[in-house]
Amino acid sequence: MSTEASFSSLPEPTSAPAAPAAPLAPGDQATPGTPGTGETVCPECGGSGRISEGSCCPNCDGTGRITVGIGGA
Questions:
Q1: Alpha-carbon dihedral of residues 37, 47, 44, 42, nearest 10 degrees?
Q2: What are phi and psi of 50, to 5 degrees?
Q3: For the region Disordered, what residue ranges are annotated (predicted)?
Q4: Residue ranges of the alpha helices (H) in the chain?
């Protein structure tokens, strides 16, 4: 009797498809969801998503929020 194990019946490992990366706004320091980051109010528009004359804020792309690093050493 052989003591060798047979692994030929095991399924092949598969990798999960990569999630599409969220688009970065110019004011973002990292992709949303990156460990060590958080969402905050855009300092350029104060969270409104608009700047003077009602145009879209170029820093947050009109969302009023940006992703920044938190904590630090």
A1: 0
A2: -130, 150
A3: 1-44
A4: none
Residue 41 CA, distance from chain mean position: 16
Radius of gyration of the chain (CA): 23
Residues in the chain: 73
pLDDT digits (tens, 9 = 90+) for 8-62: 565 666 665 555 566 789 999 999 889 999 999 999 999 999 998 889 999 999 9
What's the longest Cα–Cα distance across the chain?
Answer: 84
pTM (2 d.p.): 0.63
| Cα–Cα distance, 21 to 23 (Å, whole number) | 6
Cβ atoms within 10 Å, residue 54: 7
